[in-house]
Structure formats: C-alpha cells, structure tokens
Amino acid sequence: AGGWCGVARVFRRRLRAPPVQTPCPLQGCVRGLVTATRPKAISRFYQSTSVGEQDGVWRVFLDGKPVKTPRGTFLELPTEPLAQAVALEWGAQGDKLKPQEMPLTTIGCTAVDLIRPSMDDCVGRIMPYLAMDTCCFEDNNADLAKLQEQEWAPLRQWFEAHFGVELAVGRGLSGPPHAEGTLDAVRTALLGRDEWELSALEVATSTSKSLVVAIALLERADALPKDALRWALLEEFFQIDKWGLVEGEHDLSHSESLMWLETCQRFGRIGRMFPLGAADDLPGSRHGRVLADDAAAAAAARAAGEEQSNDPGGNQAELRFG
Q1: What is the pLDDT of residues 231-259, one digit of tens each?
Q2: Dihedral (C-alpha) 117, 34, 84, 73: value to the nearest 10 degrees?
C-alpha cells in the first residue's frame, strides 16, 4: 500500500504540472517564462542608471538610453518604484552583466514580450494548475493528510472567499471535482489583470505548481514567500522532517524557488498602484501596495538621478536585455 501511495503521489504531481508553452532560453533554468537568453559575457557598457515616465508608463535608462527587451520593445513598467527597483538591478551589475541576477528585469521583459501580445494565452496556461492544484489534494497517509488539512484548508478557504468560488479536494488519482463555474469565474477574474500582474502570477504559479499558492503570495497581505514555499512543497517538507534533507538537492532547489517567489511578490506588490486590501474583494481589479522600502529606494534613486543628465524622449539607442 505504501509503495502504491508513492506512485500515486508522483503521478498526481505530474498531472499538476502542465507544460509551459513558452520557451526557456536561459540554460539550466526551469522557468519557461524567462525571455532573456544567456549571452556570452558582456562587459558593462554604461555608467549611470535612471528612470523616466513616458505615456503613462515608466522606462529604465542606461546613460540616458532606454533599455529594450529581447524582442526589441521598450521595457515598460507600471510604477516608478518598480522601475527604480529594476534600475537598481542594472546599477548593481559588476564588470560583466549577469542577466540571471536580474529577476525583476526578467519578469518585466516577460510581461512586455510574452504576456502583452496574448493575455488570453497566458491565462490559458495558468488555469490548468487550478484544475489539478497542489493544495486541492489529500494524501492517503494519515499524518500527511492531517498536516495538509491544517495548512491547506485555511488557504483554500481564503481563495474561495477571494474569488467567490468553491474548491473541492481530490484523493488518489482523481482530480478535485471543483464546483461548477469555479474555473470560469477565476478565469474571468484573471483576464481583468494587466500584463505585469499576469507575468508575476505565471512565474509564481509555475514555480509553486499551484494557482492557489501563487494568488495568496501576490494578493494576501500576510503571506510571505517562505510560507508559499512551504505550502507548495508541503509533502516534500513532510518527508524531509521524517527522513532528512538531501544536501545539494533539496537546499539548492528550495533556494532557487524561494528566490523566484520573493521576486514575484516584490514585482507584483511594488508594481501596483492601490493599497493591498483596498480592493481586496474585487478579484478582477488591480490592487496591491507599494512596499515602504521600495518607495524609499525609489525616492533616493530619483534624488540622485536629478544630478544626472537624462533625456527620455531624445536618445533612443537600442540597449537590449539578453
């Protein structure tokens, strides 16, 4: 029985991980959303970074020249604090550029290059995760099932209230029989989000293999990235507590996943214009909060930038990320 339970868990895990349709140009990267390729080592070719607003969006400038995405589109961001955070990533680069160390830039490029042209396709890639959501299963192991109930049941209840839907719980190889209309209601709500929100959401969803976890990470005020990692890998943490951690495997994969979850939450929250909770009962609206530390960093960077020459509308040299 124990062996079959293990086989069932592996099978369910595969069912809960629909393939991401977008390419993965970053070698060794498990995310299919990253639009920046891993180029040959590029020497840093700029001295200063700054940001500027144009046509209601924010752009990042290197020595006064706007950054472009791999597909040649201007890297556009919804808020000044987010633009400043992206600019700080560029400013923190050393003698050689390392795109893999600029995750905020990566999610921004993904939003412009891959999400904006087809929002419906993005939502279509996300929804299968809810149909077989990690948090909507109960294991046959009594101790693990008890832990799942303790940690996942409140999370499901929050998600249900957030979207006004009903989630079900699956057992064995059967998927959760969600209430009629649940998937359509969530899909409609997600279609009301913009490309930046969807970009962060898709990366968070593919990282956690759970839309429930990803939505909580981005839109629940008290959710922390470490909470999201535990929710997403609850069965794995249960096994680690029982048998121990495999160094060089569990710790590395957890570190990478946590980095992406932290980045997604930061990108989503400083990329919003309204306080988290102000529109929390409107799942289709753009809502969130600007974190105080990012707002302070934006103000400081802006003050420093006032001493530099910058003409956002004049110099349109093409500087592409990747």
Answers
A1: 999 999 999 888 887 766 666 789 999 99
A2: -40
Burial 17-38 (b: 16+ CB within 10 A, else e): ebebebeebbeebebbbbbbee
Strand partners, 76: 59
Name residue, tokens 């569990």: 250
Provide DSSP, 252-317.
HHHHHHHHHHHHHHHHHHHT-SS-TTTTTT-TTS------HHHHHHHHHHHHHHTTS---TTT---
Which among 166, 180, 164, 181 has a CA at the least distance from the CA of 136? 166
Q: Break the chain down into helix, strand, coil percent, rounded to 5.
A: 50, 10, 40
**Buried b / exposed e across 191-202, counting CB within 10 Å, b at 16+?**
eebebbbbbbbb
- Rounded Cα–Cα distance for residues 161 and 144 (Å): 25
Note the pLDDT of residue 249: 64
Question: Looking at residues 113-135, what average pLDDT do you find?
Answer: 97
Residue 171 contacts residue 136 (beta carbons within 8 Å): no
Can you tell me which residue has the tokens 């214009």?
273
Tell me the angle at which helices 195-208 and 250-270 cross, rounded to the nearest 10 degrees: 160
Q: Which two tokens stand for residue 177?
A: 């029989």
Q: What is the pTM of this model?
A: 0.78
Q: How are beta strands 76-77 and 57-62 bridged, if at all?
A: antiparallel
Average pLDDT, the chain: 80
With beta carbons less than 8 A apart as the criterion, state whether 206 and 33 touch: yes
Residue 183 burial (10 A CB sphere; 0-12, 13-18, 19+) = middle
Residue type, 220: R
CA proximity to 271, closest of 70, 31, 105: 105
